[in-house]
Write a structure and sequence with these properties.
13 strands, 13-stranded antiparallel β-sheet, 1 helix, 4% helix, 207 residues
Length: 207
């Protein structure tokens, strides 16, 4: 693959935001008589951009203001699969205007597990995902893992079985300040954590 555009395979997001991307890399498959088939992939380039209009950010009669969020892989993304065995995505790191993230995943014998951790820059995503806020700043650190609790049948969707178990923490990394549009004051959160337990309960720890 060399600079393959991902746009035709990506859908519109809620609110009319569009997603574009490009990928480059190699995929190698091995088929040996009497042995399980295997495949390995290495993506040397993976970049995504999300673009959307910002409600209420333009003057009357002017074109809508546009906001873009960009994310790209900072190292090779490696994947592997074996017939009848595991499918793995090795830990892959990404960075961009919205912060940084590392993710990984594995599926084996019908069970799946995955994890994601990193830092989210709230001011970079607010114009698209929280348009009712006139101001948002601060950063969140997160470390979240998910796993299925029952095997997934061939061709079945994860949604068809029990919900995945999600655990981890979301922590205020730098003070958060936000203002709801139309209000004359800011609200602030200087520190705190949200703990996601394997019992499905979220525990909020604020000072």
């Amino acid at each position: 693959l060399r600079s393959l555009r991902l746009d035709p395979f990506l859908s519109l997001l809620p609110g009319g935001a569009t997603v574009a991307g490009v990928v480059s890399g190699t995929i190698e498959a091995r088929v040996v008589p009497g042995a399980p088939s295997t495949a390995e992939g290495r993506l040397t380039q993976l970049a995504l951009t999300v673009t959307g209009s910002v409600p209420g950010a333009s003057c009357a009669g002017a074109p809508p203001a546009v906001h873009t969020i960009e994310l790209h892989a900072v190292s090779d993304v490696r994947m592997s699969a074996r017939a009848g065995g595991p499918i793995r995505i090795e830990p892959a790191r990404f960075a961009g205007t919205a912060g940084s993230v590392e993710l990984w995943g594995e599926s084996d014998k019908g069970r799946a597990r995955a994890g994601v951790r990193g830092r989210l820059t709230l001011g970079a995503v607010a114009p698209l995902v929280l348009p009712r806020l006139s101001h948002l700043s601060g950063d969140l650190d997160f470390d979240i893992a998910a796993r299925t609790t029952a095997p997934i049948g061939v061709g079945a969707d994860i949604a068809a079985g029990p919900p995945p178990v999600v655990t981890g923490t979301v922590r205020v990394a730098s003070p958060i300040a936000f203002r709801v549009a139309g209000l004359p004051f800011d609200a602030r959160v200087r520190s705190g954590e949200i703990h996601l337990g394997d019992d499905g309960v979220a525990r909020i720890d604020l000072p």
